Amino acid sequence: MQEKILILDFGSQYTQLIARRVRELNVYCEIHPYNHYPAPDSSVKGVILSGSPSSVRDANAPQVDLSPIKGAFPLLGVCYGAQYLAQNYGGEVKPSATREYGRAMLSKVEAANPLICGLSQTTQVWMSHGDTIARIPDNYRIIASTEDVPVAAFQIDGEKTWGIQFHPEVYHSTEGSQLLKHFVVDICGCKQDWTPDSFIESTVRELQDKLGNDKVVLGLSGGVDSSVAAMLLHKAIGKNLVCIFVDMGLLRKNEFEDVLRSYESMGLNVIGVRAGDKFLSDLKGVTEPENKRKIIGRDFIEVFDAEAQKLTDVKWLAQGTIYPDVIESVSVNGPSATIKSHHNVGGLPEKMHLKIVEPLRLLFKDEVRRVGRQLNIPMEILGRHPFPGPGLGIRILGEVTAEKVRVLQEADKIFIDNLKEAGLYDKVWQAGVMLLPVQSVGVMGDERTYENCVALRAVTSTDGMTADWVHLPYEFLAKVSNEIINRVKGINRVVYDISSKPPATIEWE
Ligand SMILES: Nc1ncnc2c1ncn2[C@@H]1O[C@H](COP(=O)(O)OP(=O)(O)OP(=O)(O)O)[C@@H](O)[C@H]1O
Ligand SMILES: O=c1[nH]c(=O)c2[nH+]cn([C@@H]3O[C@H](COP(=O)(O)O)[C@@H](O)[C@H]3O)c2[nH]1
Ligand SMILES: NC(=O)CC[C@H](N)C(=O)O
Ligand SMILES: [Mg+2]
């Protein structure tokens, strides 16, 4: 049985970060909403309570029944979790005189305590709270303090239960990972055996048990998730995996051929379907971004389904769902507002009457990449920038035509090739070119031109939720602009997008 740490989520923006820090220690963990957690069995080695935007003093503050956990399993409360452990067992939480956000220096009071023994005597931690623990119950001991927060860390006497007011999971808590290691390894006794190799081995075994001799169909996009899912399935069931890669006519220049070739060299059984004409004709005259997305999504499902119908005896549809998608769908905060209909090419399950298999549903993106490396997937696939499902269709503002696709593909290729040549591609999280529905006057060879404008976009990000524009060198931008204007017929002006997300988004539609 896979040993694990349970993380009970009270809605903190940092809950996923706690999980990632624990996983980085090669310890498996799962996030569950505080009000629906599974009864802990012997595979559970310890429990972490997350922070929360709520205050324990609110009448409707999240309440959790800790009776199956507290005293029976090692327990660590972070921020709200710590305040909850103080408030509900005889202590008192009050609003802080000054709200505390950011850096603070933690000093050890009980230096030998197993939670903090390896940390420096004073160490930088990150705070984010408006409440403070004013009084702890009689059987609690303070083990560390900051200047403003006397109860920065405590332990309950005779119990493996701790609370900490700061956030060990964030980067700015310099010895935060060390503290988490003390908890999950020294205190909970986790063996640190959750590695890409062990994941591959156990997943391949599970897939073989589950699928037997059944046939599985999977959509390959050229992206990281579907490629890694395909290689895992390929390792498990070989030729019983059939992959379909659809060319919607909206991919980057030469991408369909290049990616298909990589897949074939990886030994995958791939069917490439060219369906660009259908997409372009259905997009004719359509300018509204959400309509464009809906049409592309609908056409994708039709094309994929028609191709899959040609295969006989398929029982399963494989998907590259990853852990953040799973957490999002069970989150205590509920689904968030729709800014854009993402994953619009992911609507296959409703349409196809197949059982679903999702070999990556427990992994974070960086873990998917590590597994991919271990499976020898080429870096040209693993290191590829994210690319939106609707492709260049949402980078051509307004109506999509074959000619605009061609123009954008040329400009995009120049930008991406230059990023690679300058050694900037891997430093940028995502880059692309937007073709604007704007014409402007120019002069070329003494003649007046009246042509299109493109915007270059390059951002840094970790998950696409927030992003900042990249400070690309002026010389680099000059070279790209020059090449695009000189070589791509139909473009006479290049601008660089210097908007962060929020308030802008990464794609323009
Ligand atoms: N052109 C395509 N041909 C076949 N399948 C596709 C194509 N584009 C997307 N898919 C399928 O739809 C799924 C969802 O696509 P989407 O791009 O929204 O997800 P993703 O999280 O970016 O995954 P990936 O990294 O695999 O692209 C993909 O994982 C893949 O299975
Ligand atoms: O699979 C996808 N299907 C989509 O419909 C889609 N729209 C945007 N994106 C990608 O998501 C990230 C955030 O994009 P935005 O800031 O534009 O919302 C960026 O990485 C975008 O490229 C998509 N990915
Ligand atoms: N980060 C947190 O868990 C904050 C807890 C609580 N909302 C406070 O402000 O103190
Ligand atoms: Mg994708």
TrEMBL record:
Pfam families: GATase, GMP_synt_C, NAD_synthase. InterPro entries: Class_I_gatase-like, GATASE, GMP_synth_C, GMP_synth_GATase, GMP_synthase, GMPS_ATP_PPase_dom, NAD/GMP_synthase, Rossmann-like_a/b/a_fold. Residues 194-384 form the GMPS ATP-PPase domain. This is GMP synthase [glutamine-hydrolyzing]. Homodimer. The lineage of its organism: Bacteria, Pseudomonadati, Bacteroidota, Bacteroidia, Bacteroidales. It is an enzyme of class 6 (ligase). PROSITE patterns: GATASE_TYPE_1, GMPS_ATP_PPASE. One of its GO terms (molecular function) is GMP synthase activity. ATP binds at residues 221-227. The keyword Ligase applies. It comes from Alistipes indistinctus YIT 12060. The keyword DNA damage does not apply. One of its GO terms (cellular component) is cytosol. It comes from the Bacteria.
